């Protein structure tokens, strides 16, 4: 083991997780596509685009050279937008060490294939399940870069690999738990981005805490139904990677998903909200793929369908909420 880690991203979560890894004693190389940002990171020891004024640990350097980033890396952390992952992997895979563990920080579903990111990684790289891991949980990057306490889940089908990754990213402020339920962990992160949009929309419309609590709880029910159909453990979705992540994303103004949804609820168009966000909001890109995933597994996802209607089809949020509330009533556990 080299102790080296490559993080393919200079965005907010990639940078925050790189800090965690460096604080845990790892030598970290960030890959970024924009030379000006890479140069600024190396020159100032900060990421001025995402966290101006926050000093990065000394064990972090940045490069635009993917081969340099990947060379000798025990863990390769992938934190690109979900919809461009496959294209990137076509170029990057030959650069990875043959035994490198590929770690997904992404919380999306691929359009067209309705694949989770671990499935895209497996198909695009040929890596076996023992080389694919995910990190998911209530991890708001602006809090983590300030070293405020947080917990997460590191999941891999191989428990020993999950424990290796756990050791690689455990610090005094970041507490990772292990799991072998990769599907459950990933699904919790992907669907919570869609439900988080719904909660943000409700907040932007001025709806109260009762409505937001109902969306979070029934959104978790949607996620759990879909997870069960896909072979996930329902207990995973009741934990950090499910309920925990959903609460943080749905309730915090630090969440870009919440802010985007709130913009829609206040009357912005999707185009206006995208321009205001200035960052990828995975729930917007992936909501249609999540709905397709539900249809493929025969699972009803009414909140997800409502979000798709607003985001993709331009439906008025007030009319969408009214339609959601008018659905036939039934038992809570179904």
Structure description:
The chain has 334 residues and is of the alpha/beta class. It has two domains: 4-180, NAD(P)-binding Rossmann-like Domain (Rossmann fold); 184-325, N-(1-d-carboxylethyl)-l-norvaline Dehydrogenase, domain 2 (Orthogonal Bundle), CATH 1.10.1040. The chain is 51% helix and 12% strand. It contains 16 helices and eight strands. The protein has helices at residues 12-23, 35-44, 66-70, 85-92, 117-125, 141-144, 159-168, 182-204, 209-230, 234-237, 240-251, 256-265, 270-277, 282-296, 302-311, 317-325, and strands at residues 4-8, 27-31, 60-63, 75-78, 101-104, 132-136, 150-156, 174-179. Strands 3-2-1-4-5-6-7-8 form an eight-stranded mixed sheet, with helices on both faces. Strand 2 (27-31), helix 2 and strand 3 form a beta-alpha-beta unit. Helix 8 (182-204) runs parallel beside helix 11 (240-251) and helix 15 runs antiparallel to helix 16. The longest helix has 23 residues, at 182-204. The N and C termini lie far apart (47 Å). The model has no long low-confidence stretch (mean pLDDT 94).
* Morphology: globular
In DSSP terms (H or I, runs of 4 or more residues), the helix count works out at 16
Mean pLDDT: 94
Q: Which fold does the CATH topology of the largest domain refer to?
A: Rossmann fold
Number of domains: 2
Regions with pLDDT < 50 over 5+ consecutive residues?
A: none
């Amino acid at each position: 083991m080299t102790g080296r880690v490559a993080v393919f991203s200079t965005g907010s979560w990639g940078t925050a997780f790189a800090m965690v890894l460096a604080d845990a004693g790892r030598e970290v190389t960030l890959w970024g596509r924009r030379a000006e940002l890479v140069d600024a990171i190396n020159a100032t020891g900060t990421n001025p685009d995402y966290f101006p004024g926050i000093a990065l640990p000394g064990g972090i350097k940045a490069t635009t050279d993917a081969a340099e980033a990947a060379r000798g890396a025990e863990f390769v952390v992938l934190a690109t937008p979900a919809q461009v992952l496959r294209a990137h992997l076509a170029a990057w895979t030959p650069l990875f060490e043959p035994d490198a563990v590929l770690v997904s920080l992404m919380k999306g579903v691929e359009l067209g294939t309705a694949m989770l990111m671990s499935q895209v990684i497996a198909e695009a790289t040929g890596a076996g399940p023992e080389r694919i891991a995910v990190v998911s949980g209530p991890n708001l990057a602006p809090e983590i870069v300030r070293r405020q306490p947080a917990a997460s889940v590191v999941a891999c089908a191989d428990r020993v690999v999950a424990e290796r990754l756990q050791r690689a990213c455990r610090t005094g402020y970041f507490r990772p738990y292990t799991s072998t339920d990769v599907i459950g962990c990933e699904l919790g992160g992907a669907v919570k981005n869609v439900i988080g949009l719904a909660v943000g929309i409700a907040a932007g419309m001025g709806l109260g805490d009762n409505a937001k609590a109902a969306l979070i709880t029934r959104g978790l029910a949607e996620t759990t139904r879909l997870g069960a159909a896909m072979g996930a453990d329902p207990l995973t979705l009741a934990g950090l990677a499910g309920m925990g992540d959903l609460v943080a994303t749905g309730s915090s103004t630090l969440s870009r998903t919440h802010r985007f949804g709130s913009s829609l609820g206040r009357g912005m168009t999707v185009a206006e909200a995208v321009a205001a966000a200035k960052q990828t909001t995975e729930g917007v890109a992936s909501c249609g793929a999540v709905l397709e995933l539900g249809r493929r597994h025969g699972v009803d996802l009414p909140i997800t369908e409502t979000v798709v209607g607003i985001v993709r089809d331009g439906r008025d949020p007030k009319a969408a909420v009214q339609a959601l509330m008018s659905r036939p009533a039934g038992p809570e556990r179904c």
